[in-house]
Amino acid sequence: KEEFDIIVMSDVLEHVDDEKMAIEEAYRVLKKKGKLIITCPNKGLFGFLDVDNYSWHIRQFSLLYKFIHKLKGRDVPKVREGYRNKHKHYSLSELKELLSKFIILKYKRNGLMFNYIGNNIELFFRWVFNKNINFKRLKYFDYNFNFGKFSSSIIIIAQKNNN
């Protein structure tokens, strides 16, 4: 059912249970020569600092996870959709393989570590002081710079290949 000219998957792919199925569905509903735009975490140098994976790692030890929330005087939260699994990071070659039915028109990698640093500081303030403080300026400090394979995020523009 080719219905869409463009599909944008901005910070989606790393949260789905089956990324191959998600890409297949995008391919199915894109019109001939339709475009797919994907943004996701790149397997960069500082990916180990991804705060979305801290909770996942801690949840693997359910007693510890429950204990931490009890210390904070709150109920254990339900795991949100898209956060049941580890937050995935992708290399360019992995994305090219996933997008084998597409023609890669353009890609860009950007950021290095300030997004991770900002997210970690925000997490610290949330856990220690119960304060939501935004460090947006810090998080995007290096976002306009391409650090190649060391970058923290990747953007791909691909076109449906009807051959």
Helix-and-strand structural type: alpha+beta
The percentage helix is 25-40%
Shape: globular
Strand count, sense and barrel status of the largest sheet are: 4 strands, mixed
Strand order of the largest sheet: 1-2-4-3
Unreliable segments (pLDDT under 50, ≥5 consecutive)?
Answer: none
The helix/strand order is: EHEHHHEHHE
User: What's the overall average pLDDT, rounded?
Assistant: 91
Radius of gyration, in angstroms, nearest whole number: 18 Å
Percent strand: 15-25%
Please provide the count of β strands.
Answer: 4
Question: What would the keywords be for this entry?
Answer:
163 residues, alpha+beta, 35% helix
3D architecture notes:
The protein has 163 residues and is of the alpha+beta class. Strands 1-2-4-3 form a four-stranded mixed β-sheet. The radius of gyration is 18 Å and the shape is globular.
Précis, in short:
By secondary structure, this protein is an alpha+beta fold. The chain has helices at residues 19-29, 51-59, 62-71, 92-98, 114-129, 136-139; strands at residues 4-10, 30-41, 102-110, 153-160. It contains six helices and four strands.
Topology, please?
Elements: E1 4-10, H1 19-29, E2 30-41, H2 51-59, H3 62-71, H4 92-98, E3 102-110, H5 114-129, H6 136-139, E4 153-160
Parallel strand pairs: 1-2
Antiparallel strand pairs: 2-4, 3-4
